[in-house]
Amino acid sequence: MSVEHFRAMVLREKGGRTQAAVETLDLAALPAEDTLVKVEYSTINFKDALAVTGRGKIVRTWPLVPGIDLAGEVVESSNPAFRPGMKVVLTGWSVGEKYWGGYAQYQRVKSGWLVPLPAGLSTRQAMMVGTAGFTAMLCVNALEKAGIRPESGTVLVTGASGGVGSVATAILHKLGYAVTALTRHPAKQDYVRALGATEFADGPQWAEVPRPLEGQRWAAAIDTVGSSVLARALAEMHYGGVVAACGLAGGADLPTTVMPFILRNVSLLGVDSVMQPTANRIETWQRVAQDLPLEKLEGITARTVSLDGVAEACTQMLDGELQGRVLVDVNAGGAVD
């Protein structure tokens, strides 16, 4: 290796507070894992924003290079399945929480965490998708495996202007589903409509705890919000409806009853992206390359930032000032519009 130094964002804990700064490191500072990756792109997810700002208890070891996603090129590996020059993508496995992550120009990771980049996707596109898009595809898979088809009826997507919701809306539309979107920002409806939403759910009732059963409106739902929003989605499911729940942007509580489950045969499916088995990861990434309309990725990606712009973008995400995805170009010298 001829690389002596590289840039990385490092989180340190001082006085019980998180301090984020872009530092210059050398390769010896990296974890002692079996594969060295030259990172090309990362992205900002809700969990990243919580970690970088310190607003959530995400970081489990200090110091930490955050970034739960990365895509790049293998430099060296003791695993013969990952030869130098191979393009790879990494999401989940507690990277960016417990293990050093993608906000660095180089990173050492376990080869078992890596997925070969599927044909048809660049590393840039893969990080436009990132954990959010990967999770969206897992949710669509879950609905399909539960028997939901386009002819079943309308699918509700909550948090539709966010990372997961944006990609889920685009995928569902391409697959022929009718999508109704819920977003708390009416100004973002044009953005979501361009991704394929045909109707919008809104109103003050979405901030309130619903009755145990409400009028039947949805064949299925992908929920990224939790709390009273998920409770209302469950209460409004058709008989035999299915909800794939993957987020808690609105809270971790669930103020509901057993009524939707025992009187309307509703199914609530939990979707986790962190510990998915490798075989399912490979299959899901292949589906992303096939079923996500890649021409919409530029529209889904609201901004591209350098490492220096990550902290500000994380704050903006938590303050609800962003829509869609934020790409991180770890090799850029400054913020890129």
CATH fold title of the largest domain: Quinone Oxidoreductase, Chain A, domain 1
Number of domains: 2
How would you name the CATH homologous superfamily of the largest domain? Answer: Medium-chain alcohol dehydrogenases, catalytic domain
Total strands: the figure is 15
Helix content: 25-40%
The ordered string of helix (H) and strand (E) elements is: EEEHEEEEHEHEHEEHEHEHHEHE
Structure notes:
By secondary structure, this protein is of the alpha/beta class. It folds into 2 domains: 5-117 and 302-329, Medium-chain alcohol dehydrogenases, catalytic domain (Quinone Oxidoreductase, Chain A, domain 1, Alpha-Beta Complex); 132-270, NAD(P)-binding Rossmann-like Domain (Rossmann fold), CATH 3.40.50. It is 27% helix and 26% strand. The protein has helices at residues 46-53, 123-145, 163-174, 189-195, 227-235, 259-263, 278-291, 297-300, 310-318; strands at residues 6-14, 17-25, 35-44, 69-77, 87-91, 106-109, 115-116, 155-158, 179-182, 199-201, 218-223, 237-245, 267-270, 301-305, 325-329. The strands form 3 sheets. Strands 3, 4, 5, 6, 7, 14 and 15 form a 7-stranded mixed beta sheet that branches. Helix 6 links the parallel strand 12 (237-245) and strand 13 (267-270). This is Acryloyl-CoA reductase. It comes from Kerstersia gyiorum. It holds the Pfam family ADH_N. Residues 20-328 form the Enoyl reductase (ER) domain.
